[in-house]
Design brief:
By secondary structure, the chain is mainly beta. The chain has one domain (about 10-180): Sandwich (Jelly Rolls). It contains two helices and 17 strands. The strands form six sheets. A six-stranded antiparallel sheet has the order 3-4-5-14-9-12, with no helix packed on it. A three-stranded antiparallel sheet has the order 11-10-13, with no helix packed on it. The chain starts with 7 loop residues before the first strand and ends in a 6-residue tail after the last strand. Bound molecules: 6-O-phosphono-alpha-D-mannopyranose and zinc ion (ZN). 6-O-phosphono-alpha-D-mannopyranose binds near residues 54, 83, 84, 86 and 156.
Length: about 190
């Protein structure tokens, strides 16, 4: 039987105590995501920085799961560090992202190609409707830490976003984040 628990989440580090699992993604594991391949190779060669970490509180016998994502600040060329981005395998499942610290943008794209962004900053809980692909982007100078909540068996579907990219990019222009069309988006 699953038992109730109070799980401590550190808003600055994203540490989850107790946690059930975690993984990290280094930049080299995100090949193909960024537009500027030369800058990508150079940044990987220059220490292959940690891009993000995901920490889970997840039990297969529960319908609900949550955890944190901790995203490092950084850029590849003028593109900010980002997550891979995914739809959910179970298309009826949405998600929430509640930002604890840092600043970023949540980039969303519906199945029929509508795009939206939601600002990520402390105090904002982003609602991700079912069947919208979502990618988070750290546009700040510090860590971006957020708490996510979704169905335990929502599943990740990476294929379409990995193959085609997203329709929009988030780049730095004059020191500020700007959302632009992705010139390499494959229809
Ligand atoms: C959020 C959640 C996780 C997801 C992670 C990284 O924390 O949505 O389920 O795995 O972001 O995103 P991605 O898997 O797209 O790289
Ligand atoms: Zn998700």
């Amino acid at each position: 039987m699953l038992l109730p628990a109070g799980v401590r989440i550190d808003p600055n580090t994203g540490a989850v105590e107790p946690a059930t699992a975690s993984y990290t993604k280094r930049l080299s594991e995100l090949r193909g995501l960024f537009q500027d391949r030369q800058a990508f190779d150079a940044t990987v060669a220059d220490g292959d920085p940690l891009a993000y970490e995901v920490i889970d509180y997840r039990w297969k016998d529960s319908d609900l799961a949550f955890g944190t994502t901790i995203m490092a600040p950084g850029k590849v060329g003028d593109e900010y560090f980002m997550t891979r981005g995914h739809f959910h395998e179970r298309r009826e499942c949405g998600e929430t992202y509640y930002t604890q610290s840092g600043e970023g943008l949540l980039l969303l794209q519906s199945r029929d190609g509508e795009t939206r962004t939601v600002e990520m900053k402390p105090g904002i809980c982003a609602f991700i409707p079912p069947d919208w692909a979502h990618r988070s982007i750290n546009t700040g100078k510090d860590k971006l830490v957020f708490v996510w909540h979704c169905a335990t068996d929502a599943g990740h579907e990476y294929g379409e976003i990995l193959e085609k990219g997203m329709r929009k990019l988030v780049v730095e222009r004059d020191g500020r984040p700007e959302v632009i069309d992705n010139p390499n988006f494959m229809r």
